[in-house]
Amino acid sequence: MGDGSMKGVAAGRRLLCAGAVILLMGLTGCAPGLPEALTVASSETNAELSAAALKKPGPLPEKTLGSPNAPVTIIEYASLGCPICAAFHKSVFPKFKAAYIDTGKVHFIYREFPIGRSAAAAAQVARCVPEKDYFRINDKYLANRRRWNAREPKPELLYKIVQETGLSRAAFDSCMANQKIKAGIDWVKQRGRKFGVKGTPTFFIDGQQVRGALSLEDLRKLIEKHLAVAAKPA
Prior knowledge:
9 strands, Glutaredoxin, alpha+beta, 6-stranded mixed β-sheet, 3-stranded antiparallel β-sheet, 11 helices
């Protein structure tokens, strides 16, 4: 089943990308998931996770936006082949960034949770572009996922997305063969699974896990709640 046949993605607030069913669902990297648009992890799971443990970096440099001293930290686990992630980053993320990241209220951490070989390859290539271009290239991969997100990676299509950053074809090929980056991304994904990440997008808001599609209003309610907690005297 391809992207075009998944009309439910247009109302993707009821879907969760899930690697366990990617072979059944074709190239979308998504599957029917949670019955609600916004599902919070159980208190038992939250009790096992601390904000400090979640924020601990892995073997690769973290990809972040905003001040590390912001009162609220939001971590997103995403796959570049996921249409729900693409919709979030196109329609919600710019407004969220302007309201909370750029104003110093939220420190945003993006982590790779690639679903499928092509998404893993795209995540690896994004790690090799100039740092200033990282989030922009991520957005381009998400927006153009129908072009490159095949069952097996197509290097020529992946390269077209990043060529404008000045990355040479030789540097691209070297990046694709870089086992350190590949292993690092896999480490991030496997640790995400230990944190309870089962599909994308999955968010952690100061340790509170929220899975599935989020609107700006969903985010606002969650962030304001955590800002209120952060503002209380110790």
